[in-house]
Every structure is written in C-alpha cells, then in structure tokens.
Design brief:
Elements (H helix, E strand, L loop, with lengths): L1 H13 L14 H22 L16 E3 L5 E5 L4 H6 L5 H13 L8 E4 L13 H18 L3 E5 L1 H8 L5 H4 L4 E3 L2 E6 L2 H6 L4 H14 L7
Parallel strand pairs: 2-3, 2-4, 4-6
Antiparallel strand pairs: 1-3, 5-6
The structure holds iron/sulfur cluster (SF4).
Length: 224
C-alpha cells in the first residue's frame, strides 16, 4: 500500500505538481482501502502487460504503455494505441496529441491527474499503423480490467477503433458520435482522436460539443 501511494505521488510529480496538500479532509478508512485495492490491481495489471506476448506487438515494442491517472476517476479516456513517443516513454498521450488532450482537459476545468487515460492496445503497432482485429482481441482483457477497476461514470472514446471495440458496433465515427451510448451501465461518449484534430482543426468544434455533453453527464458546470 505504501509503495502504491509512493508511485502515485511520483506520478503527480511527473505531471509537474510541486506541492501535495495534506490538509485536505482525510478519506475514511473504507475509501482509503478501496483506493489501495484499485492502485494494487492497476499495478499488477501493468506488470502483466510489461511481460505480455499475447500478440506479435509484444516483440516489437520498446515499452508497453499501460495507462495513467486516477484509479478513482469519474471520467476515463480510451484512445487507440501508443505512438512513437508513447512507446519510448511508456506513457499514453505524450507528444503533440497528448498536449492537445491536456488543453481540452483544461478547457473542461479538469487536470490529467483527475481522469484516467488508457489505450485499446498497450503496445505500439509498427509505423503507427491501425490496430488489427486480432491485436484488439488479444489485448482486450487489459482494458476490460481497467474499466472494471476504475468504474468511471463516463467513458470518452477517442477515435473510431476504441468506439467500435467498446460498443461492438462497426460504423464510422461520424455515425457514432453526437449521442450517449452505454458499456456495462457506464455512459460512453465517442469523439475524435486528438491526433485527428491536429490534422482536421474543423473537428475541434464538434469535439467541444462532446466535451460539454460529458460535463453535463458528470453534473459539472461548463467553465466560462
Ligand atoms: S498489444 Fe496487448 S496483447 Fe499485444 S503484446 Fe502488447 S499487451 Fe500483449
């Protein structure tokens, strides 16, 4: 438990937090135990993914990229697969697309350490090619356990592959986004992948509409 808390504090420091306020109301014992359980589950899954060879991507990756964030998050983002920079760093959504995601979070009045971020695949497809069906199937177990563990109120899928995999619907993203779906009782809001927004700035406006939909589901006010 102590090691898990230390890992979480290191994570906050990695994100640039220079101070951690200890004068916040302490969690009750039940909440504290639950937090410890979730951190432990995530840590054991992360170690499992590090050694995973269930699909050929396990032989070509530099690092597995498990996921990052608050295991108690109300909002979880699910992207597609690590890219070059994620593969080198072992962390999801770093680089230009990650910076854009951070700006979107900021506009929502959220910080990265308040949400949980994961990908459909934990290892980088060579040359950043699209995920293949067999790879998604082989890796599904990790994402399923992450969703079960965090059990967020809302999942935001980023890009068409994560939306299709989660919803079991093979349709273009343009037909999936714009409404709220469900996965095992959790609201799901599909939107564009930040990397796609970098290529198509016109999609930023519909993406912001999706973020407003998420804030409304979370009963949070839209920052002015
Ligand atoms: S992509 Fe997933 S299933 Fe394939 S090796 Fe990596 S962790 Fe295992």
């Amino acid at each position: 438990m102590r090691q898990e808390i230390r890992n979480y504090l290191h994570y906050l420091m990695d994100l640039g937090e220079e101070e951690v306020f200890l004068d916040q109301p302490p969690m009750d014992e039940g909440a504290d135990a639950l937090m410890g359980d979730r951190l432990q589950t995530m840590e054991s899954l992360r170690r499992e993914a590090e050694g995973c060879r269930r699909c050929p991507l396990g032989g070509t990756r530099t690092n597995s990229v498990f996921g990052i964030g608050n295991p108690h998050a109300e909002l979880m983002f699910i992207g597609e697969a690590p890219g070059r920079e994620e593969d080198l760093k072992g962390e999801p959504f770093v680089g230009a697309a990650g910076q854009l995601l951070d700006r979107i979070l900021k506009a929502m009045g959220l910080r990265r350490d308040e949400v949980y971020i994961a990908n459909l695949l934990k290892c980088r497809p060579p040359g950043n090619r699209d995920p293949q069906h067999e790879e998604i199937e082989a890796c599904w177990h990790f994402l399923e356990r992450q969703v079960e563990t965090v059990h967020p109120r809302v999942i935001c899928t980023l890009g068409s592959y994560s939306a299709s995999a989660l919803l079991g619907i093979h349709a273009p993203l343009s037909r999936l986004r714009g409404r709220v779906h469900a996965f095992r009782g959790i609201d799901v809001v599909p939107t564009y992948h930040p990397a796609a927004l970098l290529r198509n700035p016109a999609w930023k406006r519909p993406t912001w509409e999706d973020m407003q939909r998420i804030l409304s589901l979370l009963e949070r006010s839209i920052p002015g």
